[in-house]
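Suppose you are handed a protein chain with no further information: no name, no annotation, nothing but its sequence. What can you learn? This example shows the usual starting point.
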Amino acid sequence: MAKDPLGEAGLHFDELNKLRVLEPDVSHKTIVLKEECEEFVDKIGQFQKIVGGLIELVDELAKEAEAEKIRAIGARNVLKSVEKQREAQQQQLQALIVEKKMQLERYRIEYEALQKVEAKQSEFIDQYILQK
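A reasonable first move is to predict its three-dimensional structure. Written in structure tokens, the prediction is:
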């Protein structure tokens, strides 16, 4: 076999008979690798767009969850406030009941005292009438 003097020097002819430094197989593999890299870069770009959209969606959901959490805390605070108001009102009403019971007891004692006075006065009047 005859040796290819250009091949030994690292020079090769491609399918268009252009002089190349790389072997045709290596050149072809380089082109394929370049195309695969471009596809990979395109897919990475698409992936980044998808992930960006997902991140935006998650951020929006997080904001909505935080807003709902704040509303729930507000509702809980209102409920606690209402509960405290009811307790205070119940204590006021219980104090009013105690006060009214004491007033009723005073009126009962006063009524009994007035009945005694009336009985004494009636007895005095009856005796006065009998003496005349």
